[in-house]
Amino acid sequence: MRIVRETGKPIAQVARDLGIHEGTLGNWIARDRAGRGEGEGLTRDERAELAQLRREVAELRMERDVLKRGVVFWVKEATR
Description:
Elements: H1 2-7, H2 11-18, H3 22-36, H4 44-78
Helix pairs in contact: 2-3
């Protein structure tokens, strides 16, 4: 991966020089770029943050729903 990054040589040429399959090196390069935030998609840190935020949103929604039910109960009791 470093050879492709630093020299700018095509993946196919570097793969031939190293004696590995071009697709394999291409996959490695894509993962490396994604991990560095250079390519499309999310980095590892961004995926972790997204998962944390989704957990927080789920928790906040549950809390909101509990509060809504409490208000409905309180209104029903107050109108009796």
